[in-house]
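Think of the structure tokens as a kind of shorthand, similar to the way a musician reads notation: each symbol stands for something richer, in this case the local conformation of the backbone. In the example below we present two proteins back to back. Begin with the first one, reading the sequence and then the tokens, and try to describe in your own words what changes along the chain.
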Amino acid sequence: MAPELVSIVVLMVMFVIATVLPVNLGALGFVAAAGVGVLVGGLSLDDSLAGFPTDLFLILVGLMFLFGIAQQNGTIDRLVEWSMRLVRGHLVAAPWIFFTLATVFSAIGALFAVAIVAPLAMPFARRYRIDLLLMGMMVVHGSLAGAFSPISVYGVVVNGLVAGTALPSSPLTLFLVPLAFNVLVAAVVFVLLGGRDLVGVRSHHVEEEDEEPPADSDVSVPGGVGVRERTRAGTRVTYPQVLTLAAIVVLAVGTVGFGLDVGVLAMSLAVVLGILSPAGNAEALKGISWSTVLLVCGVITYVGVLQEVGTTELVGQGIVALGVPLVVALLLLYLGGVLSAFASSAGIIGVAIPLALPFLLQGSVSAIGMVAALAVATTIVDVSPFSTNGALVLASTPEDVDRDAFYRRMLVYAGSVVVAGPLLAWALLILPGWL
């Protein structure tokens, strides 16, 4: 069997194993890169592993380390607290507040924005009788809305893959298109899942400096039902939180405004925070998701082998041979979307763009539009309870909720998104040809 076909079979086996067994897809990627490269492709071991993304490794670790510190010292909780105060008296805004929080955290580099926001948003929704599916999906779509900023992990991965090719690129377009797409989807979700019922529902916030907050009690207010809430006042921003907030601002300004390396800057800021405020630094380092780092780096390393043995060129030629560019584009979007619903979006998009490269080089469809559509199609399905984001929402559901029933609701919603998401991305981004 030709090396190209062997590498494709191995790739399919990798996805099957990672789906049915608790085996990291990235670990499989490293093993496959060495095995296929040396035994089938005739490459040396060094050449087989040469595709390891050193820059991306530093970005992933640096961002996770920095935001792990922010989580440990309470900076993230402080930001959420300030945002929650904005909805006092106007619960209709609550889902959008959490949507915006997830967007901002994701856009400035927090890989697991859902893990930060969902544990706060879901109990909040339960407390104020907001539909849990509405709140959970708003958080996920918020995270996806900011997922492709130039300093986010997804944005760096995709821009890095495109930058190494002859394709035109537009980091700003890649950021804004998924942002607008997910805002649109979130608006539809908000309407369909009862967001309009929150109009006129208000909560009243009463601060008491010296008393423990008593149990909530419902009260009638003009125009709807309100919840009177008492909390402790006088909590001040701490020194470590001030430093961390400043570090986040420096990260955003330094990378976007001055083009500084995301990974180096994030790691440097994390180290500075560790020196100036050591508390929580060790815990933040332990909290780095090494499984995600392994996943992304392993998959991209194997993609390097696919390129070396000619697999991407072979697949691209086969796709182009279909002869109908719009149909080919739609099939690629569905392929990425369906696979991503059961596997890692970061891993799938790292494979999808190199596989689509020969097709994109033909110029039959807009390369910028197709890359943006692939970004949308492979991430919009992260609402699935089988994906990381969907699983985090399910795990954040309060204990007094019937999780089996909620799981079934998530499955129905995820199935609808898998069917409609890639088609909508194709219809809005590829078919008109406006990008």
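Once you have a description of the first chain, move to the second and do the same.
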Amino acid sequence: MPLWLQGALESAQAAIISALVVVLPLAGVWATDGFENRKVDFLARLAGQAWLLIHGVPLQLASVNVGTAAQPGSGVLSLFPLGLTLIPFLLAWRAGRRLARASYTDQLWQAFLGALLVYGAFGAATAFVCRTQEVVINIWFAMLLPLIPFGLGMVVGSRREAGSWSRLIGVDAVDWIARTSQHSRWAGSYFASAIKAGSVALMTSLALAAVLLAVDLGIHWTEIIAVYEGLKAGALGGAVLTIAQLGYLPNLVLFTLAWSSGAGFSLGVGSHAGPLGTAVGPLPAIPVFGALPTGQLDFGAAALVLPVLAGLLAGWWFLREGENHFDEWLSIKIRARWFTAAVSTLVLGALIGAVAGVLAGALAWMARGSAGIGRLTEIGPDPLWTAAWLAAEVGIGVVIGYAAGPWLERRQKLREADLEAAKY
């Protein structure tokens, strides 16, 4: 089979499977009279719009009813469920592995080209068929934006199967680095280790935010159940509502990350939820909103420690895995060790904090959006404030972790020595 055709078949398979995952829950609600409109074409268009939404395509709501007064309103639905976006990503990851297995190094682009063309055509066709007077869809957005999660999944899957970039695209990074000067290699090693440490800080912050979110959900479990009972959605309706909330679970983790950093997040125009207090207006009857901390929080400021702890771990990681070539270079230029050690540590903290802040800001930008109706046109954290707060707190933690790292390493070695001595 030609590689372009195999890529086209793999992408068509991924598109159909992801569409079925969206259609089946909606079909269950439709079959149990969960929608007022009982027409099949309404269900098909709704499923297509949901498929585009999980791929990051904004939907222009031209006319909707807002509130109990049923006043017409309009807006853009751009709050994407990042959890459901994992469905096309994982399907593309599988397709990328299969295509990499079937291709030579210099032929993989043929399979990728066929796959991306078919997936883009599927998105454009879905937008053309599913657009209505109430929901306007930009066909160019529908053609191009789904290629981001799908293409990223294919690249990651292909790299996973190939094992290295040289086998994937024919570029030997090791040979290229070997041809550079020693100073360039030292600088590259330093910045690469700082970027990895910043990623460690971000992943640790996300893990701590996820734990904080789980604790908050457990504390407010009775309020969440009360909202479920008040909705009276039935077993199937409740299950679909739970699936939709799970789809937004990564968004909620990023909301919690921004909350724990001190930047906070908004749930509507003019609202703000942060560790020092929460002030929001009326919210829709969505069960997960029952877990929102309200009022003045006595111990909310303690959450600011979480990004600092993540930075401490990143600083310790850099001490163990990286090489502070900037400190070495500065020590050669200036003989005052107390000065060079302090400056190099502060620069390292600023660099790792900046990396973590930029990554957090990018994730916050992905997690925020608009529900398209009423006040709910601003939902989520502010990317710039989230990046600034997290960068500052992670930087403080890096300075502490890198400075305390030698003492922690010494204690660990003494403990290992004691254990070895105890054996004899």
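Compare your description with these statements about the second chain. Residues 383-423 form the longest helix (41 residues).
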